[in-house]
Amino acid sequence: MPEIDDQLADEPIFNAEELDQNNLLREKLVSFIKSEEAILMAGAGCSGSIYPPWFAFVKLLKEEALKVDPDFNEDEKNFLAFADKVKQCIGDDRYYAFISRTFSPKEKTHEQFHEILCKMPFRAFTTTNYDLVLESALIRIKFHPDYALVFEGTAKSEINNFLLSLNDRNAHPKKVAHLHGKYNIEKSIVLSESEYSKKYGFSIFQNESTLFEKIQTGNISKEEFDVLIRQYGYEWPIGRKLIWSLMATRRLVFIGFSFSDPYFLRMLEYLNEDLATYDSETHFMVVRITKKNMIQSKNFAQQLKQTYGIITVFYEEEDEKYSALADFILNLGQEVMDIEDAQPVVKKAEMAGAVTEGSQEVTDELMELAKKQDLG
Predict the structure, then answer these.
(1) CA 345, CA 366: separation in Å to the nearest integer?
(2) pTM score, two decimals?
């Protein structure tokens, strides 16, 4: 094994052809965002510098269960079932209080690179995160009393306004649509298997027989029938309708998104069945790549393209480090907003340090350049 590791250490992440291809796809991404037709889909990686990364959050969730039951020993690898077990263990009130406490606004509400991200001319902002990082950045750019939008419990007219804003941004202010809920609205949270199946209207678990066969056996109550309708994917809650419509009629840019969510992958499969997205160039995905994960990452990118029409743009980073996304967004912002080469003012290493070490002088200079583009 050490010999293999040594070989990987000496091998560049990209060969010349792969590097040219990645640069070409990055240019396409820049052009697409410039077109003002792109919709941002922000995942947990976008908030990872302020809130617990996924593995740390799972650990905290387990610790919460152990406070109530010292013998709690559920397997967190099957996370969806694990989250349901935690919820059952600690009770609904404590479960939602934990989520609210974990993802409520902190003293540092956002990073400077979030402002750069929000200054880019995305047609809309969507996220699977519970936090308000994007809202905080948007308020810093241009004040508005409420940028957050959840679908559960919200007046239907507000959801309609969000959809109208995709066509007429001047008539309706931008909103951040929280597809999996907002930290302080219990009925909006999507984390456990039961919450996912309710939100998406189907279950990812394989059914041993068809719905027709289940019904044919008879003796099914109305409650059992309603459960079966959801389990077999015949229910279309508003969340599922909106996610499908966004992916089917718009083009998305996924940032900080891992595609490890089995329900989101199933939605892509449904979309593929309906629209045959094979090997198209429908959506973009920005992905971290390191020497340790490069083979797996390249293979997954190829699969995403061939099966779902998702183009992957990689950014390189050293193993065990997680600060390069901020640097990527800062540089992307320069290209998208046609900022002249800022190298004499802000060197690449300095920009990364501005985010990771808090160099206010450097980040302020970059923000001033961005504000001159008048894209607020």
Answers:
(1) 9
(2) 0.84
In angstroms, the CA 372 to CA 204 distance is: 47
Instruction: Cite the DSSP H helix spans in the chain.
Output: 2-10, 16-34, 54-68, 79-90, 92-103, 112-119, 133-141, 156-165, 193-200, 211-216, 222-231, 238-249, 262-275, 294-308, 324-336, 348-356, 360-371
Domains, in order of start, for the chain: 2-51+106-201+236-371 (3.40.50.1220), 53-104 (no CATH)
The Cβ of residue 170 has, within 10 Å, a number of other Cβ atoms equal to 6
Alpha carbon of 48 to those of 31, 189, 272, 370: distances in Å?
27, 19, 30, 23
Tens digits of pLDDT across the chain (376 residues): 444 455 556 789 999 999 999 999 999 999 999 999 999 999 999 999 999 988 899 999 999 999 999 999 999 999 999 999 999 999 999 999 999 999 999 999 999 999 999 999 999 999 999 999 999 999 999 988 889 999 988 999 999 999 999 988 777 778 999 999 999 999 999 999 999 998 998 888 766 666 666 676 767 777 777 777 767 677 888 889 999 999 999 999 999 998 889 999 999 999 999 999 999 999 999 999 999 999 999 999 999 999 999 999 999 999 888 889 999 999 999 999 986 543 333 334 344 444 434 445 544 554 554 444 433 3
What secondary structure letter does DSSP report for 142?
S
138-161 per-residue burial string, b: 16 or more CB within 10 A, e: under 16: bbebeeeeebbbbbbeeeeeebee
DSSP letter string over 265-322? HHHHHHHHHHH--TT---EEEEEEE-TTTHHHHHHHHHHHHHHH-EEEEEEE--TT--
Do 343 and 92 touch, CB atoms closer than 8 A? no
Q: What pairs with residue 127 in β-bridges?
A: 42, 178
Tokens representing 334 are: 């320069």
User: What is the dihedral angle through the alpha carbons of 280, 286, 291, 297, rounded to the nearest 10 degrees?
Assistant: -40
